[in-house]
Please model this.
Amino acid sequence: MNIILTRPLNDTENLMQDLFNLGHKIMHIPTLKISNAYLNPIEIKNYNALVFTSSNAVRNLTVKGEKKNIKCFCVGSVTEKIARINGFTKTISASGNVNALKNLIINSKEVKKNDRLAYICGDQITIELDKELHTEGFKVKKFINYFSEKITSINKSNIELIKKYPPNVIFVYSLRSAESFNSIVSNYSLAPMMTQSVVMCISKKIADFFNKAGWKNKIFNPGNEIIEIEKIK
Model:
């Protein structure tokens, strides 16, 4: 299969290798540029748990205190893996979207109402998780530690690859990424090469965006990319 991956390279390099080893043709078309907000270090001792809604939230984080002593709620398995690589050991992962993360926290025995949570995220969010957790009785402080900028251009070699190997599957992981990808297709008149493409979306909101734009799509859980490709086959 011809597959387009839209996450930044740090988040998708291992998946690219796995898919390549299975015989798929992989095109990497990043749709967001991530930059550090250079936030002051967070004092771990002031919080009962950290909440990460992306792996970029982990990568751009600096803290004061012992990482292995703080509980960490991660939006998905990739984020949890990065958290562990960065020294956090008390991690628990949701199924890859923010609603699942919220439910995980609310139903967890690891935290209780009135506990102090540090919610660490980027400047662009689709769900105000801090406010939703606050209504559930938690004390939440939001920290924006990275910025994301849409990428709406691609180089000539990627255009040629798309024309030579029209994608069967495109993986998209956020609404902003969906908007960027749709702009790229429009800017370079690539729609005729995408008529048989299926866009894999991590949420209904992203799927609805592609529905309105006329794309075939399917909702999936991050971490199940290879399983979903096997289903399409």
The CA atoms of residues 191 and 214 lie 10 Å apart. The two ends are 8 Å apart (CA to CA). DSSP finds nine helices and 13 strands in the chain. The longest helix spans residues 9-21.
